[in-house]
Amino acid sequence: MNFIRSVLHLLWMGITVIPWALFVVAVSYVVSSTRLYWICAAWLRIAVSGGQWILGIHNRVTGMENLPKGATDPAVLLVKHQSTWETFVMPAIMPHPLAYVFKRELLYVPFFGWAMARLDMIHIDRSQRARAFAKVVQQGKRLMAQGTWVIMFPEGTRIDRGQVGEYKTGGARLAIAAGVPVIPIAVTSAKCWPRKAFIKRPGVVDISIGQPIPSLGREAAELTAQVQEWIESEMRRLDPEAYAS
Predict the structure, then answer these.
(1) Most buried of the four, 40, 66, 95, 236, by CB within 10 Å?
(2) For residue 52, what is the DSSP state?
(3) How far is residue 217's CA from residue 197's CA, in Å, rounded to a whole number?
(4) Residue 163 has what pLDDT?
(5) Of all helices (H) and strands (E), which one includes residue 6?
(6) CA-CA-CA-CA dihedral for 69, 30, 104, 126, to nearest 10
(7) pLDDT tens profile 77-133
(8) Running DSSP on this structure, what letter comes out for residue 212?
(9) Which residues, including other chains, have CB under 8 Å from residue 199's CB and lie 6 or more apart?
(10) Tell me: the pLDDT tens digits for 178-192?
(11) How far is CA 137 from CA 16, 170, 227, in A?
């Protein structure tokens, strides 16, 4: 049954993303970047709803009160990364536009990547590390000055359930450079959507949003360590079975 559900969800994603992406590319020349973002977020809500109805994956979100209240209050969101699920969910649940920092190779993915290329986000060439981070800071400051929240995965890639990746300092360095707080977010998506498995399982994904951590006067390594400590402690609280060993 889970295999059939997974196939149906894949078909659902493919069927809906093609007209959505073509529409986004077409209207991107006549609508504002903010309007275009919310058009894309609407499709992501469709994708998440499809995951709920077809796969039986439901979200349980806590800590929304920890998000900045003002429409122009900037922040850097640092999120635990276990699967594709959270990349869809975050824009679907957040009250403000988000700008992902992602590798530019994603822009070449048919339809999905073409639409992403029309959004005001930060795509980087990972082979050019110094120049890539300079671009993150430059564009990140500009976006946050507009009230957009920058979202990053500090481990850099998806991590298996119950495992801890290497927390990189890029998100903390951006927050320090921009003088904005970081918001740690724990996500237990691998319980339902394992990193390398095609078959998804029904269940509840916990999304826990921590309190803002000020970046003013901080060192990047120290700030990153505090983010890691909160996220990984929260992961153990939310998914103790994964960390039993």
Answers:
(1) 40
(2) I
(3) 42
(4) 94
(5) helix 2-27
(6) -60
(7) 999 999 999 999 999 999 999 999 888 888 888 888 889 889 888 887 766 666 777
(8) P
(9) 2, 3, 6
(10) 999 999 999 999 999
(11) 34, 9, 19
Which amino acid is residue 107, in one-letter code? L
Distance CA 28, CA 51 (A): 27
**What's the number of CA atoms in the CB half-sphere (13 Å) around residue 239?**
25
Here the tokens at position 86 are 């959270």
Instruction: Return the DSSP state at 211.
Output: P
Which string of b and e fits 220-244 if b means at least 16 CB within 10 Å?
A: beebbeebbebbbebbeebbeebee
Evaluate whether 106 touches 116 at the Cβ level (below 8 Å).
Answer: yes
Each domain of the chain, given as residue ranges in start order, spans 2-243
H/E stretch holding 101: strand 98-103
Q: Assess contact for 174 and 74: CB atoms under 8 A.
A: no
pTM for the complete prediction?
0.93
Fold type of domain 2-243: Glycerol-3-phosphate (1)-acyltransferase (3.40.1130)
pLDDT at 200: 95
Return the amino acid letter for 229: E
Question: In the chain, what is the straight-line distance between the N-terminal and C-terminal CA atoms, in Å?
Answer: 30
